[in-house]
Amino acid sequence: MNDQHRIVSSESEELILVDRDDNEIGYASKADAHDGAGILHRAFSLFLFNEAGELLLQQRAPSKRLWGGFWSNSCCSHPRRGESLAVATSRRLLDELNFEAELEYVYRFCYVAPFGDAGSENELCHVFLGRAGSEIRPNDSEIAGIRYLTGTALAEEFERYPDRFTPWFKQEWQELNRNYAEQLARYCAP
Question: In CATH, what is the architecture of 14-51+73-139+169-183?
Answer without folding.
Answer: Alpha-Beta Complex (3.90)
